[in-house]
Automatic annotation (TrEMBL):
Family the entry assigns: Belongs to the carbohydrate kinase PfkB family.
UniProt protein name: Ribokinase
Molecular function GO labels: kinase activity
Keywords: Kinase, Transferase
């Protein structure tokens, strides 16, 4: 099995159940459920670990109360701390969960948003066949150029999986152009894929235009309807696994991790996407956002 580098952030999710989201000037009473270490990269790692896929978690762990929680959780799970740094605390968020399981976030960014180019000197890119990055990590154009510039030094047959994330609308045109390069797998939802194509284009049309640039699969999650895939020749929708939804936090991250786990183990795209669907269904049926 080949190795994956999961690049990004570990955050602390302050999970609060609410009857509905507050409106401007309103007042909603919440039920504080837990403090959970999460963040896109951490959740992707959890999915890959659950699938017994080999991966390294490359997230900065800073100094402060939230960094202490992250560090303790890494130690508890026996996950190596590859990137201890200073200068700031880790980020955190308030995750408001409605009765349907839908979640909304108020995020306070942390040390991952002051990413330093020399952090990459602590690893050897040649050790990895797959790389994960999220839209959260490339929202700042300067940081995006640092990260994507370094990743151009990966092996010729190594792939990046780019998880568009809810921050896709904040990426600059320059960053999107940098992402639409050969051997970049685009993973997004129905709303996010629109930022890659012409206004009014169908998913098929946009996926085809992406593939023409990346020569790599395009994955679009469709919620309860399943997962759309396009590999340059075939496209289709794989039905979602049934799940009793408790909390959708981490569903997309876990789906990315499942897809990477499948590909890294030698499965084809369809089998990998089915594994991703299975793990995503599992994570939404629990309160924790990470497997």
């Amino acid at each position: 099995m080949v190795k994956t580098l999961i690049l990004g952030a570990a955050y602390v999710d302050v999970v609060i159940n609410v009857p509905q989201l507050p409106f401007s000037g309103g007042d909603v009473t919440g039920d504080l459920r837990s403090y959970i270490v999460g963040g896109s990269a951490f959740n992707v790692y959890g999915a890959m670990h659950a699938a017994q896929a080999e991966a390294d978690l490359f997230v900065p762990v800073g100094q402060g109360q939230y960094a202490d929680l992250v560090r303790a959780e890494l130690k508890r799970r026996q996950i190596p701390e590859l990137l201890p740094v200073t200068a700031a605390d880790n980020g955190w968020d308030i995750a408001m969960v409605e009765p349907s399981g839908e979640r909304s976030f108020l995020t306070i960014p942390g040390i991952d948003q002051i990413w330093q180019n020399d952090w990459f000197d602590r690893i050897d890119l040649a050790d990895y066949r797959y790389f994960y990055i999220s839209g959260y990590q490339v929202e700042d154009e300067q940081i995006a150029s640092q990260i994507l510039g370094r990743l151009t030094r990966r092996a010729d047959d190594a792939y990046i999986l780019f998880d568009a994330s809810p921050r896709m609308s904040h990426l600059t045109a320059k960053t999107v152009r940098q992402l639409l390069q050969k051997n970049v797998i685009i993973h997004c939802n129905e709303d996010e894929i629109g930022y890659f194509g012409a206004a009014g284009a169908s998913i098929d049309e946009t996926a085809s235009s992406i593939f023409a640039k990346t020569q790599s699969p395009v994955i679009v999650t469709l919620g309860a309807r399943g997962t759309y895939y396009f590999d340059g020749q075939r496209s289709g929708i794989l039905p979602a696994d049934h799940a009793e939804v408790i909390n959708t936090s981490g569903a997309g991250d876990t789906h990315c991790g499942g897809l990477l786990a499948g590909l890294a183990s030698g499965k084809d795209l369809v089998a990998s996407a089915k594994l991703a669907n299975t793990l995503a269904a599992k994570v939404v049926s629990q309160e924790n956002s990470s497997l």
